[in-house]
Amino acid sequence: xDDDEAGAVMKAVARQVKLWREAAGLTQTELGAAIGxxxxxxxxxxxxxxxxxxxxxxxTDEVTGAGGKVAALKADVAAIRYPKKVRDLKKLEAExxxxxxxxxxxxxxxxxxxxxxxxxxGNRQPPFPQNEVERRVAGRMDRQGIVSSATGLPVFSFxxxxxxxxxxxxxxxxxxxxxxxxxxxxQLPNVxxxxxxxxxxxxxxxxxxxxxxxxxxxxxxxHLEVQYLSRVISNPRELQILELRYGMIRAQALTPRxxxxxxxxxxxxx
Length: 270
Prior knowledge:
alpha/beta, 12 helices
């Protein structure tokens, strides 16, 4: 596993599955056949190498007569199903009253469609195994539950460089549906999407993407992500620079109304 929290949970799950299987007098092959999985899957779970799906735990509980003790592990497994970086970001986002993000590479993760996210994550070199691609995409889609007008919070401000609207990630139809998604989300009352056109002479975002998270307790945090590095910014001086920079970027971008019209124009050209 990629972190201590997930590793501890997986060790506990592996130990319980193995103990209940052996108590029921079943081999890995027999348990797999009884619950609809292969021996390799059972072995991988018992070695803490694979996160079991909820139905795996439910069926194991039934077949071994665990009385709900194995099935009860589903909550713990659900908490660590996604990579640590995703879990940490989700916690910060849940504590935010305002999220601001600038991106000049791809469409922001909270705005991505499933197929666009697959293309972005699948393009990584060296490539992720397919199951890891699926895990990361699922984590990204799960985080998007926060983008809703149901509560009116958080308030979102996204600035996308025009290049992200034209970069043909995943192919023409994937990009087209992604642009349609932006038009849809941009109508939410608590979401502002702005476009920074390529023809602008002034662009304060040339140093790359970043985000600002303003938390419920009044704290502001920054977040930078480049290549395989992910860093949370809490230093007041660095935050001051990011906040100033984001303000300049918003001023240089089209207004939200102009931006939606611009996205519609690009969609029509795609």
